[in-house]
């Protein structure tokens, strides 16, 4: 908002230099395909990259992508190292106390368990999840022993090496691994969690939030958001 | 040749795989780590020397400052220091710039959880290119590492200064040297041989502490090894592979082992050179051998 206020002030003074200030720094994790990942060229890629670039174009903002460790992604946002978070972050009441969210750009969907065998014990066994996620919070509430890892990749590696009986994560994150790997399978019921995925912003940044909200609405209305969802998550994904 | 990786096999596949843009970023990260060490080590030594000199100063406030610095920084866990201190340092810089650049700013800097300074006071400016942001992060990292390792170095040097035989200083006084002269001409040249074992330990620990860089937003080699080694499905890459982290970490293991081995050799040489003519066991052994 600081930038926007300054821009407004400078425009009011008749200055054209204001536009140089209009860079929005987009924070992401870069380790959660298909939402966001680093491609072979070493650049941020994925559903959120494409969506974010389109949102910026519609809101007429210049955007730049920055990667940050998942664990410190919220502290670095509130201290102003970047201006928003698009990192597959589910909207939860707990997070909304610290940062604000736009409307969801990814509908509330299922989380699922993946294991090496049908007989994996989901209630009493060891279940791996990425730290500080809604899935980790959910596992902690069930009877299972929670095993937390810093990245999603490591949770899957834990199942394959036998350290954990199952992994619990967003179904869309798990699906490509299950397709590729004959040893892995979905087990148990899907669990609906969270209020969808939204863009996180500083609570004081209301003006930027309004801009992105408007851009998301326009993408929902003309169907371009649905196209992106199908492109990255397949025909069966939930759309708007 | 690398345009269609599916058709490649064997070494040519490996060659293309190891030269992707992502791998290039990892090779750069080796440079980042080496550069960090090259800048941090002398800085930490400087901080350590300053801290030790302050701690043994006759001027009470300087002494208090030196001792507090050593005690506090040594007592706080590195990881807490890195998570808290860097964000606080960054905010302090921005706060000071804010006071200078935006005296007319009327809105609060702290709004709930948010830290908001005027746009001109941001460090770096929001519209600065990405490399400026990265260099700034790197600079903060160097400063933090220097402060942390400086405190340990200060303690080592403080001990080393006290290990120089008292007779040496008395002789200096007898020759009519001022305290300043005897400090620089007698104490400092002789203390290094006592400080060296402790300092070489610190250097080894510093080499191994570089993965903390990622906490500061600088992508270091361990981050890339984890990222590149993780399982990759063909949908998101031209070079799908299973969990290869063990190979990447093996490469890091070899890198770190070679690096520490070279360091040991260098330290052994320095130690031999510093012991020359000293009234220590090593110096005495050199004298007898000669």
Automatic annotation (TrEMBL), chain A:
Gene3D superfamilies from the UniProt entry: Periplasmic binding protein-like II
Secretion signal span: 1-20
SUPFAM superfamilies: Periplasmic binding protein-like II (SSF53850)
Residue span, Solute-binding protein family 3/N-terminal domain: 23-236
CDD domains, per the entry: PBP2_HisGluGlnArgOpine (cd13698)
Protein origin, superkingdom: Bacteria
Keywords: Signal
Protein's UniProt keywords contain Signal: yes
Protein name: Transporter substrate-binding domain-containing protein
Organism encoding this protein: Marivivens donghaensis
Automatic annotation (TrEMBL), chain B:
Membrane topology: Multi-pass membrane protein
Keyword field contains Transport: yes
Regions crossing the membrane: 27-49, 69-89, 136-161, 182-206, 246-267
The keyword S-adenosyl-L-methionine is annotated on this UniProt entry: no
Coiled coil: none
Keywords: Membrane, Transmembrane, Transmembrane helix, Transport
Domain of life: Bacteria
Localisation: Cell membrane
Chief location of this protein within or outside the cell: membrane
Annotated ranges, domain ABC transmembrane type-1: 30-267
Pfam families for the chain: BPD_transp_1
Family affiliation: Belongs to the binding-protein-dependent transport system permease family.
PANTHER family: ARGININE ABC TRANSPORTER PERMEASE PROTEIN ARTQ, CATIONIC AMINO ACID TRANSPORTER, MEMBRANE COMPONENT
Official protein name in the record: ABC transporter permease subunit
């Amino acid at each position: 908002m600081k930038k926007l206020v300054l821009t407004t002030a400078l425009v009011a003074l008749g200055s054209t230099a204001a536009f140089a200030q209009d860079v929005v720094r987009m924070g992401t994790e870069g380790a959660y395909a298909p939402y966001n990942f680093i491609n072979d060229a070493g650049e941020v890629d994925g559903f959120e990259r494409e969506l974010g670039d389109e949102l910026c174009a519609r809101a007429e903002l210049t955007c730049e992508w920055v990667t940050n460790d998942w664990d410190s992604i919220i502290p670095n946002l509130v201290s102003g190292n970047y201006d928003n978070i698009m990192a597959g972050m589910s909207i939860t009441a707990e997070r909304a106390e610290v940062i604000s969210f736009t409307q969801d750009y990814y509908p509330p969907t299922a989380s699922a368990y993946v294991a090496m065998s049908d007989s994996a014990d989901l209630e009493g066994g060891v279940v791996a999840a990425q730290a500080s996620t809604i899935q980790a919070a959910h596992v902690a509430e069930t009877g299972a022993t929670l095993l937390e890892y810093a990245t999603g990749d490591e949770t899957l590696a834990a199942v394959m090496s036998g350290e954990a009986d199952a992994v619990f994560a967003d179904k869309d994150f798990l699906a490509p691994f299950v397709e590729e790997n004959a040893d892995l399978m979905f087990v148990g019921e899907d669990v609906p969690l969270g209020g969808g995925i939204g863009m996180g912003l500083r609570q004081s940044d209301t003006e930027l939030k309004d801009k992105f909200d408007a851009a998301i609405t326009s993408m929902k209305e003309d169907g371009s958001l649905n196209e992106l969802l199908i492109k990255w998550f397949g025909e069966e994904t939930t759309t708007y | 040749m690398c345009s269609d990786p599916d058709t490649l096999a064997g070494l040519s596949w490996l060659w293309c795989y190891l030269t992707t843009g992502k791998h290039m970023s990892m090779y750069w990260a080796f440079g980042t780590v080496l550069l960090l060490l090259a800048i941090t080590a002398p800085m930490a030594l400087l901080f350590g020397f300053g801290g030790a000199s302050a701690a043994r100063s006759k001027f009470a406030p300087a002494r208090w400052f030196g001792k507090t610095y050593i005690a506090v920084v040594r007592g706080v866990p590195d990881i807490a220091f890195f998570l808290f201190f860097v964000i606080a340092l960054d905010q302090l810089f921005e706060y000071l710039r804010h006071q200078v650049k935006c005296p007319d700013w009327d809105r609060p800097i702290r709004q709930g959880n948010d830290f908001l300074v005027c746009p001109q006071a941001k460090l770096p400016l929001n519209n600065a290119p990405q490399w400026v942001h990265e260099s700034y992060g790197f600079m903060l990292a160097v400063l933090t590492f220097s402060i942390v390792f400086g405190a340990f170095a200060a303690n080592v040097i403080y001990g080393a200064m006290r290990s120089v035989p008292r007779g040496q200083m008395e002789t200096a006084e007898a020759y009519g040297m001022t305290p300043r002269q005897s400090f620089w001409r007698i104490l400092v040249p002789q203390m290094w041989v006592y400080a060296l074992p402790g300092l070489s330990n610190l250097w080894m620990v510093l080499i191994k502490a570089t993965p903390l860089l990622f906490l500061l937003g600088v992508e270091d080699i361990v981050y890339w090894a984890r990222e590149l080694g993780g399982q990759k499905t063909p949908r998101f890459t031209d070079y799908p592979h299973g969990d290869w982290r063990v190979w990447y970490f093996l490469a890091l293991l070899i890198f770190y082992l070679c690096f520490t081995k070279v360091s040991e050799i260098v330290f052994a040489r320095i130690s031999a050179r510093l012991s020359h003519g000293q009234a220590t066991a090593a110096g005495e052994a050199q004298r007898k051998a000669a």
